[in-house]
Amino acid sequence: MGEMAVPEPDTAVVIPAKDEADRIGATVTAALKLPGVDLVVVVDDGSSDETGRAARAAGARVVRHSRNRGKAAAMESGAEAVRLLDEEHPRHLLFLDADLGETAAAALPLIAPVRDGEADMTIAAFMTRVKLGGHGMVVRLARDGIKRLTGWEATQPLNGQRCLTRAAFEAGRPLAHGFGVETGLTVDLLRKGFRVVEVEVEMAHRATGTDWRSQLHRARQLRDVGLALAAREPAVGQARSALRPPRR
User: Fold this and answer.
1) What is the pTM of this model?
2) CA 20, 22, 28, 34 torsion-angle sign
């Protein structure tokens, strides 16, 4: 049997990262080995450790925010960096979390449906679940909200591992703030007729903790997901339109 053909480079990986110096190197190394990936951009979102240095040493291009601006802003910065490096054909964008480590090598199933024209955005469904530690409340809020607004039911609506075409990414802008980005992006693309599919992958990130920092993180997630859904409720949109001053 002949060897499998390696696809032409057509995909860039964007990794938002804050204080992930211990894992970012392994994540970047694994991402660079994905077939068809020729660019990894790490957005160092105001880290206080050596995240940027470790990412660069592993072969990533690094964009740095001088202060923490949140996940959505990091995704925007990373996508813009890719756009500036794109030539004739825009690359697909594969967003990965910084703490995946070597399991980032299992992201290929996310790229394939986009590359083959079968999906406009894929969302990872981790086959191995980590301990949620209270995270389930936010997942339910996102899942129920997406289903109410679009009719589509996601199994892991908050999963940040996603591959999408440049056209789909642009159609989803402006991104919802902070941790509402995944929920808002899913709703916006489905409403605009883009094809969104979940794909099972053998990936995993660190388990969610139960200390006060983890609880604060979940509270921010709950707030941001709630805001993203509220902004997309038809009644809210109508109210906003009614409050806009008339054009002169």
Assistant:
1) 0.89
2) negative
